[in-house]
Amino acid sequence: MADNSSNSTYWATNIRIILISLVIWALVSFGFGILLRPLLAGIPVGGTDLGFWFAQQGSILVFLGIIFFYAWRMNRLDREHGVDEE
Questions:
Q1: What's the CA gap between 86 and 82, in Å, rounded?
Q2: pTM for the whole structure
Q3: Which of 73, 84, 59 is nearest to 18 (CA)?
């Protein structure tokens, strides 16, 4: 990352990945687990309703997925900009 343009591109992409991940996490945990829970109450999943599942387990699983996606995407971005650790 020798020039300022490359730094700006790297950080802009990094911030965009973070913001997208946070929006997905907020939508799943707060949106589906709290706000939309009454709408999801009639859909059965594993012996309970979908709203409860999102509030208790789904948001955690989505969060873990976001962590793995972020690590994979940042490793790729680091390689693209020549700042990878390998």
A1: 10
A2: 0.79
A3: 73
